[in-house]
Design goal:
By secondary structure, the chain is an alpha/beta fold. It has helices spanning 19-29, 82-90, 116-128, 180-183, 187-192, 221-232, 293-305, 363-372, 380-383, and strands at 6-16, 33-40, 43-52, 61-66, 106-113, 134-138, 143-148, 154-159, 175-176, 211-218, 235-241, 249-254, 264-269, 283-290, 314-315, 320-325, 331-335, 353-354. The strands form two sheets. The chain has a nine-stranded mixed sheet. Strands 6-7-8-5-10-13-12-11-9 form a nine-stranded mixed sheet. The mean pLDDT is 93. The structure holds fe (ii) ion.
Length: 384
């Protein structure tokens, strides 16, 4: 039951301990564009930055939320609605803010480059900037390198070729055992493989094209498949082994009827794997794109009709969205394309802190507090 409404992956939001540092990673290291600096629609104490790709479009967005305190856990449920977000900021729980991937969390985001040659250029570019980069690994459907953002979130860059269609005529129809060259890795040779010339600048050929895929973790891959294919309405396009661990599977789903980079969600299936923990250095949620407000409303109705617990349509200022969770509890959204030009001209995106009109009178105070990035204030006594 392919969904008639999805246009692919809309955005992926990560949790950062320091938004300025994450911005340097996105812009200086990866060549994305800062397209909006703002505060979270649930609570102005949370700083937010949105990034678009070099092509100038804003149909695919990487978002960072800042969770700055070092002594407080990130809210276990994330920022799901205004009430729980405010409550978690008013009454933060002592503990480590760091996330840990596991069942019910994302594992990594893969960005897209054209060719293996560009992948090797990226490896050189990032290595020269001090990143620990592994790969290029041959993943049967693409080649890929891996590295971490400054908070530890796993990022990948993956190639177009050879694509998903080279080993089966009907995608997702059979369980595909990976070829020997993807399994038997010559780690020393792989580690040594890198562009011989420096690539300090990101050339037009190197520039990242957008998302390639993202990968989450499930303790029950069949339950995830039933959920996404039969209830959310995406297509299963590949069933294969997870190449980095024995006894684990890797399933791929296409959010549109065209299974190509930018439209693909994947899951590692680790039977019985323990739950992860949301926090700094991990993704907060993934969003899929609905064509417009009307399509979003239709899709919400379809999800509710499939007995998925789905939230009301929320106005997130730059898009409308609905939220739901996968069977392991991983948060998803469906969102309209962003309207980033409502408060900045198209040529000036990301240049100022954008606040909703009701917060403009408090701009000085909010800018000062974001500059200082204070920890949330516990109000346990007041709340009691
Ligand atoms: Fe991946």
């Amino acid at each position: 039951m392919p969904s008639p409404y999805s246009l692919g992956i809309h955005s992926q939001a990560f949790i950062s301990a320091n938004l300025e540092r994450s911005t340097r990673f996105m812009v200086d290291d990866l060549g994305l564009r800062l397209v909006k600096r703002t505060v979270h629609p649930h609570d102005e104490r949370i700083a937010v930055a949105h990034f678009g790709f070099a092509d100038g479009g804003t149909d695919q967005i990487v978002t960072y939320y800042e969770w700055n305190p070092i002594f407080y856990e990130f809210p276990a449920d994330g920022f799901v609605d205004q009430e729980t977000t405010k409550a978690s900021l008013d009454d933060p729980q002592a503990g480590s803010p760091h996330g840990r991937w596991g069942a019910g969390t994302n594992h990594h985001l893969a960005l897209h480059t054209d060719s293996r040659e560009q992948l090797l250029n990226w490896k050189r570019h990032l290595s020269d900037r001090g990143f620990h980069v592994t790969g290029p690994y041959f993943r049967n459907y693409f080649s890929a390198i891996y590295f971490n953002d400054p908070d530890g979130a796993i990022f990948e860059i993956a190639t177009t070729e050879p694509g998903f269609g080279h080993d089966e005529a009907v995608l997702g129809s059979d369980y595909m055992k990976p070829p020997e060259e993807a399994v038997d890795r010559k780690e020393r040779d792989i580690a040594a493989e890198v562009a011989s010339e420096p690539h300090a600048d990101i050339s037009a050929e190197m520039a990242l094209r957008g998302f390639h895929h993202n990968t989450s973790v499930s303790s029950d891959i069949e339950a995830v498949t039933d959920f996404f294919v039969n209830r959310v309405g995406v297509d299963l396009i590949k069933m294969t082994d997870y190449l980095d661990a024995a006894d684990a599977t890797h399933y791929y789903y296409s959010a549109t009827q065209e299974p190509r980079p930018g439209h693909v969600l994947t899951y590692f299936g680790f039977p019985g794997y323990p739950a992860g923990r949301l926090g700094v250095g991990l993704s907060h949620h993934i969003a899929l794109t609905a064509r417009d407000e009307e399509a979003l409303a239709e899709w919400r109705k379809a999800l509710a009709g499939a007995e998925i617990e789905v939230g009301e349509i929320e106005d997130e200022r730059y898009f409308s969205s609905v939220s739901f969770r996968d069977p392991d509890g991983h948060l998803y959204r469906i969102a309209t394309p962003p309207y980033f030009t409502i408060d900045e001209a198209a040529g000036e995106l990301g240049q100022k802190l954008c606040l909703p009109s009701e917060l403009e009178s408090r701009r000085g105070e909010i800018e000062e507090s974001l500059r200082l990035r204070p920890a949330p204030t516990p109000r346990r006594t007041a709340a009691a």
